[in-house]
Amino acid sequence: MSAYAAEPRLVVRGLDVRFDVRRSSGADTRGAEDPRAEAPRAESIGAEAHVVDGLDFELRAGEVLALLGESGSGKSVTARALLGLVDPPGRIVAGSVRFEGRELCGLDEAAWRRVRGREIALVFQDPPATLNPVLTLGEQLCEAPRAHLGLSTNAAAERARALLAELGLDGGEPWLARYPHQLSGGQRQRAALAQALLCEPKLVIADEPTTALDPTLVAVVVELLRRRTRELGTSVLWITHDLRVARMLAQRAIVLYAGRVVEEGPLGELARAPRHPYTQALFAARPGAEKRGRPLSTARGAAGDPTRWPSGCRFHPRCPFADARCAELSPELLPEPSAGLSPGLSPGPSPELGSERAPRRAAEAARESSNARSRSVACHHPLDERAEGAG
Amino acid sequence: MTSTGLEREVHAALRLFQRLAGRVAVFFGVSVLVFCVIHAAPGDPSLSVGVERVESADAPTDAARARFRAEHLLDAPLWRQYLHYFGPFDLSPRGHVWFGGSGESPWGGLVCFDFGHEFQRPTVDVGEELLRRLAVTAPLSGLAILFAYALAIPLGVACARRRGSGFDRWVSTGLLALFSVPAYWAALLAMLVFGPRGLDWLPVLGLADKDVARFDGFERALDLAQHALLPVAVLTYGGLAYVARQTRAAMIEALESDYVRAARSRGLSEARIVWRHAFANAVFPLLTLAGSLLPALVGGSVLVESIFELPGVGRYAYEGFLRRDYNVVMATTLVSAAMTLVGLALSDALYARCDPRFATEADSRSSDSLSAAEARRA
Predict the structure, then answer these.
(1) How many angstroms separate the CA of residue A211 from the nearest CA in chain B?
(2) Cystine design at A279: which of A72, A274, B92, B263 (Cβ 3.0–4.6 Å)?
């Protein structure tokens, strides 16, 4: 039990998700084209899209972690991978997802089903679309508590009514007898959120849930999740590109770029002093971050084709600070200097596997020893200038 | 939203009446069209007068032909012929006195559900004969449709769940091949393979053995089943292929929807996801399809019934065409038309009963306007 208590609730190590585009090049590419899956398009036939590449992070009980990144960075695929729901032709190639000390990768379907919805719940990008149009709210809200918690229909309905009331759907209306089309947009959003949270999951993965929500409801949701983290110790992985909303709830953030973590740390610190040029661009692209009247700064271009990521640092084609080394050297995440380790550059001249593995092991060792929660990328800019200045 | 219960009832009744009136109008429009088409078609019914009555198939005499033409108003203008067919006044020489008839049979026509008599067998009432034929066609087609759905739905769902797999590819290709095979060809092939010229497993003509009168109850049933097996199989496979492809397409769409993804993420059982969540949505196109199968149920298959020599409606229509028996052609065509309209009405009604979005049209309108207002506020 001590190991159980010591380990964070969710530990993700080296998560690696690829989409085999060759297989989808046949009759049906619809699954791969789904924008929400952030999967590669059919043009890149004959290749493998490396959508999530060696993702590491951990999440403690009651903690809210923001997962930041532009579209195509692998956020949504990460969310689905944590539930074992990567659609073919995608698959989890390597890595481990430990939830409360239990390895989830490699579970069979029956075991996954006991995790999904009960331990880990997913809130979708467009919550109202997750309501089945031909079933009453009662039917779709009560099914999960009945299946997972063994509640009777009445007990499940009672629980559903209570949660709906908490979300602002109360007052004598027979909500559970309603069909989705009988509700307004805002009411549907509330019902869909209730659907995900009804079994009181220990981890809530919210995949850009606020992009489609009414502003008033965003506040309601944030408040509900905050209460859940405080009272029930619920952990939340808040996937978003909306920094304003992320800062309402999350304490810590990881920044994902082209399937890799480029920076990790307390959200406030990231906002104040972003290290990686991409993080800088991300925070600079926030309306209000700059003076009114000046054009909004954005990172030029797009992350590119996940079947052919740029060599070396994946951000270098868009990076305003890039030089020749960036195309060769793959940067590694290392704990912050304050954690007692100085940042370093990958020593090998080529981005081959051997040279990549060595610093990663070092980083892992350092992480395990110091249990550092802040990691920054060992990138030549602006970090090693700073390091040189310090040294 | 503010309308009272009574107002809503009146509204619903009005809508129902409108639809019904529209369908009746369509029906009579069809009757006019068919009437014009068969009269425009080449061929003269009076040429085959008496063929069935006179053993020696001599050409009818001129006098007999003239009598026949007068009796059936064949020389009258088309509008008069149609009015005669439509009713309620009988305009023939034996018809209503107002129209120069003798008054022997003043009433008749379509509006009296009187389809007239066969041209060549004046003693046979077309309506009664049609009912006798229906007793053959309806059970056969009904069984065929039942089997088609019973097999197609599990097959389509299984394909959709294993989309892109070898199983799906083989079954889909097989269904496409099946769908592409013309029914008459399949019927002939089945006759050759299973009939006396081939394996000699099954009788291939008619619905009963020539010695059926001597059979007891069980033997009679077995005999009927053996006779019906091939026709039902041939009638089934086309519908089966079509319904299975529709089921597959509808299920694929449903299984890819957000609500199914969400149901998966909530850890529900696969059976519940597939049937309660996905199939409940995929069933609607199949209901529409079922409505369009009703005319097939009644009209039967002209080709299949002719090949297997089944005394059904399809074969009756075929015989009528051959003999230029306008009354038979009109009756069989109109019954099919009526069944098409009834089928449409039925699938509408099924939709309304099963799809909650239809059932509460009024409510949904109010909540839509509500959400629009909410969107404006936001």
Answers:
(1) 13
(2) A274
Residue extents of the structural domains in chain B: 5-112, 130-358
Question: A265 with A376: CB under 8 angstroms?
Answer: yes
Show which of residues 74-133 on chain A sit within 8 Å of chain B, judged by CB atoms.
83, 85, 88, 109, 112-118, 121-122, 124, 126, 129-133
A246 phi/psi in degrees, rounded to 5: -60, -40
CA distances from A75 to A17, A30, A67, A253, B253 (A): 11, 20, 7, 13, 25
Q: CB–CB of B265 and A115 under 8 A? A: no
Q: Tell me the DSSP string of A69-119.
A: --TTSSHHHHHHHHTT-PPTTEEEEEEEEEETTEE-TT--HHHHHHHBTTT
Q: Please answer whether residues A8 and A274 qualify as being in contact, where contact means their C-beta atoms are separated by less than 8 angstroms.
A: no
Candidate CATH numbers 3.40.50.150, 3.40.140.10, 1.10.3720.10, 3.90.1150.10; the one for domain B130-358: 1.10.3720.10
> Is the confidence metric ipTM above 0.90 for this complex?
no
pLDDT computed for residue A337 by the predictor:
53
- Specify the higher pLDDT residue, B13 or B378: B13
Task: Write out pLDDT tens, residues B173-200.
Answer: 998 888 888 888 888 888 888 887 878 7
For residues B297-311, give the mean pLDDT.
Answer: 81
Quick: pLDDT tens for B307-359: 888 888 888 988 888 888 888 888 998 888 888 888 888 888 887 777 777 65
Q: Taken in order A322, A327, A329, A333, is the CA torsion positive or negative?
A: positive
Does position A353 have pLDDT exceeding 80, yes or no?
no
CA-derived radius of gyration, chain A? 22
Question: Amino acid identity, residue B54?
Answer: V
Question: Could you tell me the two tokens for B234?
Answer: 């041939």
Q: Measure CB to CB from residue B266 to each of A116, A129, A135 and give the nearest one.
A: A116
Contact between A97 and A81 (Cβ < 8 Å)? yes
Dist CA B306 CA B36 (whole Å):
26
What is the sign of the dihedral through the CA atoms of B315, B316, B317 and B319? positive
Mean pLDDT of B275-302: 82
Q: Which residues contact B56 (CB under 8 A, 6 or more apart)?
A: none
Q: Where are the domains of chain A?
A: 313-391
Which contiguous run of DSSP H or E holds residue A17? strand A10-20
